[in-house]
Amino acid sequence: MTTKEKIILSLSVLAPFAVIFIYVWMTAADVVFRDDIYLIKGGFVEKYCAGTLSLADLWRATSINRIFGYHLLQLLNIKWLGMNSKIIALTIPCLMLVTALLVYHEYRRSLLPVKSPEFTAATFILLSLLIFSLVQWEGLTFAYSFVFQAPIPFFVATFIAMELFITKGNKKYWPAAFLLPCFSVIVFGGQHSFSFLASLVVVVACYVALNRDSLTNIIWFRAGIMGVFLAGLFFFYMHRIEVNNYWPVSSLNMDPLWAAPVDALQFFMAALGASVVGVNAANMYLSFQLMVFLGCCIFLIYCFSFYFYFSAGLYQKTYLPLFLMLLTILYLMFMTTGRFSYGLDYGMASRYACVSVYGLVGCVWTIILLAVYSGNLSKWKRSLLYAPVVIMISGIALTSAVEWKIQPHRQAYFSSLYEIAQRVDTATDEELLKFEERPALVRESLRVLRDCRLNVFRPSFGDFSSR
Question: What is the pTM of this model?
Fold first, then answer.
């Protein structure tokens, strides 16, 4: 990298990263909240405090979501920091930074040498603003948010490693090609693993279809070996997942979707729209029907991006944008099948944007590649090409303004949880509901923490606290 490129890249990546890091520092809870509650009473935290913790407790699933990596991280947090929730939240912007740098590595490779390194670094700000977006505030503000965010850098790294392994096959690529999928599926993937594996299958199928006349036997062999390996990881992940599960594993029920297909489609489109305009901004300025319309517009952007990606031969530059777009579409489809019965607007929840923003990254990346490699475009066509980028960035800007306006109230809300926790024995059920779990379970879990002197009851509480 040239010095000029490093300076421009630092502004493109580190400035949005700094904004997100400051937001998390000022806002994130240093109090157990929501999903962390049921991991305490009757979960691995109580087992640790009783000295009966086993590997099976760390491997324990919650519905179809194995959170082995999060269990390990929290275990280390308990041992060394007394279960400091905020310190885990502060790792999330760092995970996003790793993802941004991995994406930039491929983005730079896809544009050089046609465009200068300085151009590459400067235009990456468009992708960076999407990656470090406050649309995903729910994936930033409490410890369990780590589960929503942690898979993404491993998914991107795994995709890059597997592509190098299958196409190049050098021995130096073998360790990463087999180790990273283990982290992506077994350790950090959780329920994201389903859309991750499905996206990989589709991308590999596209690669085979597009290059079938030039594939050598060794490439077929390496692709087959990787396919068998990934299938093995999937079956290992799913094996006896119902045993000692935090939540019952419900079978996939498609009946609600078939009974109301139009509503299911609205659910999906609203979720897609919420990747651009966050749920809080939408509630303030847009109706649900307008969010569905926005989602339809975003879906059209995806369709055009897929079309031009193949018709313009952009796959010859990189397959990562295709993977990111597929990851989002498949993830939201899986989420729709599992969450549609919770309500029409449930898919707009911010935690789902932790994945869906990367589909937008793939779309914008495709648009930039098309603009660079289609030099004969007329001015009006080029202007039309940039319209989707303007829509996305405008939505992100609106959401950011709303989330920063809400931030003091969110910070105060989390601070109030500390006061409630300190009087756990006398707090009312209405107060305990603020932890967004069943009041009886919240009370029992807080008592476990008090007995073990963890989290808000640890001697050093106040370090990294938002109080």
Answer: 0.95
